[in-house]
Amino acid sequence: MIELNYKKVGTGSKTMILMHEWMGDHTNYDTSIPFLNTHDFTYIFVDFRGYGISKDIEGEFTFEEMVSDIKNLVIKLGLKEFYLLGHSMSSLIAQKLAMDLKEQVIELFLITPILPTGIKMKESAKQKLLDDVQNENNVIENVVTQASKRYNNTWKNYRINLAHTCSTLKAKVSYMNMYLSTDFSEEIKGLDTKITVLTGKLDLPAFHKNSLEKRFMNYYPNISFIECLEAGHYPMIECPVFFSTVIDR
How many CA atoms lie within 13 Å of 69's alpha carbon, on the beta-carbon side? Predict the structure, then answer.
């Protein structure tokens, strides 16, 4: 059984598992750690296969594998119940886990999330995007530029460098294909787990609160939304005190 690597912070009796997005790894949360409630909580910052401290772990890099790996981590940690957080790409994994482990997931936090339908686009556009990522044809640079117009070049260079170095190219391409191809929306509809969604007012339009709220509410009856007015796609980096306060509440 493959064991994902993770960073453990805190000594509390309650446990939260935090997962990362496509263009970063567990270090996305580093700026928030000083403001977390490490007395009451133990935080598990996990890296998926091909990313961060799990970069050397090979795999198929599929949706099913990602879900299975987190389930194995829950077993390894001996968790009877836990809090779960997914960011962007991993919000898909978090939603599926909340369904499969309904009796164990106390509350679900979705940060700048993807709907359980995945991200839909025409097959030709999807294939072009995957080809551009495979050939490293400025996909990362274009995304960072679009999402960072108010920030300086130091931030943009940091994001671009992390996106290129945090993972293997194989993992990056496969995980993008995962969230462009996954749809479990009919299966999960009606899940009543408590869910908190955190969006950034300065994120790309597809991730704005108004864009997500009505569509997510079609699937989950026990869901609430919080908007970070000073953040884009990375509230844990851009507004770490606010981010940590939201999950602490």
Answer: 24
Beta-carbon contacts of 224 under 8 Å, excluding residues fewer than 6 positions away, are 195, 196, 197
Domains of the chain, earliest start first: 6-248 (3.40.50.1820)
Per-residue pLDDT of the chain (249 residues; tens, 9 = 90+): 789 999 999 999 999 999 999 999 999 999 999 999 999 999 999 999 999 999 999 999 999 999 999 999 999 999 999 999 999 999 999 999 999 999 999 999 999 999 999 999 999 999 999 999 999 999 999 999 888 888 999 999 999 999 999 999 999 999 999 999 999 999 999 999 999 999 999 999 999 999 999 999 999 999 999 999 999 999 999 999 999 999 998
Residues linked to residue 226 through DSSP beta bridges, in sequence order? 198
Residue type, 91: S
If DSSP codes are grouped into helix, strand and coil, which group holds residue 244?
A: helix
User: From edge to edge, which strands make up the β-sheet containing 14-18?
Assistant: 6-9, 41-46, 14-18, 82-87, 105-111, 194-200, 223-228
* 83 in Cβ contact with 182 (< 8 Å): no
Residues 6+ apart with CB under 8 A from 147: 203, 204, 232, 233
Q: What is the Cα gyration radius of the chain? A: 17
- 231 touches 204 (CB < 8 A): no
Q: Which residues pair with 196 in a beta bridge?
A: 109, 224
Instruction: Give Cα 128 distance to the centre of its chain.
Output: 24
pTM: 0.96
| Inter-CA distances, 183 with 119, 120, 228, Å | 9, 9, 27
